[in-house]
Structure formats: structure tokens, C-alpha cells
Amino acid sequence: MLSAVDRLFPPSPAMAYLGDGLPDCRDKLASKRVLVVEDEALVSMLMEDELRDARAEILGPVPSVENALQLVEAAVSDGGISAAVLDINLGGQHVAPLADRLAALGVPFLFATGYGVNHDTGGYGRAPVLEKPFDAGRLVATVAELTFTGADAAAPLPGR
Questions:
Q1: Which terminus, N or C, of the chain has the lesser number of Cβ atoms within 10 Å?
Q2: E strands, 38-145, where?
């Protein structure tokens, strides 16, 4: 029987290759500030642990759009945000207002969702989508890529 951790972050060949050290991602996330916005406590703790193991500084995790917007405003004047991981649906509320604010600030983000890659991303179709369950190595690698490529990945599609 799979553990709760294995169900949320299933083992993958990439994890076996990356192993415990995640050598390619560790250097990229050192000194990076990553906002985690997730309303499921177990999922947020797992994401926080994996990103922290990759030497990221974690902002949050926060379970609501309102709390996340408050944290973003505080972080803007206190070192900024390198990237964000956003659950699309937070207690029934779409994360779009937060995505709008992050985009306005030039903060790249990805969506982590159980709704699939075709779920409404609030006009941010260029933002990466990690479909739950996903493996931890993919989360870390995608966040590292965001911090390297910048906000263009989360730019709204034309017409937004």
C-alpha cells in the first residue's frame, strides 16, 4: 500500500536519478524566495519540505488568496519573491487575483492542481501546470526553471 507521501508525490525514474541531493536544482534555488499557496495542509507541508531541501527560502505556505495577497505585499518590501507555487482552487476561490498581482510584480509562478492541465488558469496559459500528484523532483526542477526564465512564463495570454 502506498503511503500518503507516495500518493501525493509518486516515485519516478527522475527521482531515482536525482536522488537525495538534487544537484542540478540545489544551486539554482539557494537564496531564492518561493511563495507556496496551497489549502491542503499535507500537500503544502510536502511542497515546503522539498523546496526547503533544495535550499529555497519559503514564504508561507498560505491557504487562501487573501492571506497570500497580504504576504505578497509584505514580501515586496522585504526582499521580494523569486517564484510562486499556486494551487488553482483555494477553498472554492480561484487564485486569479493572486496570479494577477504576481504578474504585475513580474514574479513567475506555476500552478499545482488536481484539476488537470486544461483547468482554468485565469488567462495565464503560459504558466507551467503541475498536475497532482506530481513528484517532488519535478516540483523543484520547475521552480528552478521559473527562477531562471523569469516572469515571461507566467505572462497572460493575449486578450487578458
A1: N
A2: 57-62, 83-87, 89-90, 93-94, 109-113, 129-131
- Residues with Cβ within 8 Å of 143's Cβ and at least 6 positions away in sequence, in order, are 29, 32, 34, 51, 54, 56, 83, 85, 110
Q: What is the pLDDT of residue 156?
A: 52
Q: Which helix (H) or strand (E) holds 127?
A: none
Residue length of the chain: 160
N- to C-terminal Cα separation, the chain? 45
Cell digits for 70? 497580504
Q: Which domains does the chain have, with CATH numbers?
A: 21-154 (3.40.50.2300)
**DSSP for residue 48:** H
The predicted-structure confidence for 55-105, as pLDDT tens digits, reads as follows 999 999 999 999 999 999 999 999 999 999 999 999 999 999 999 999 999
pTM (two decimals): 0.79
Give yes or no for residue 35 having a pLDDT over 70: yes
CA nearest to 159, candidates 133, 128, 122: 122
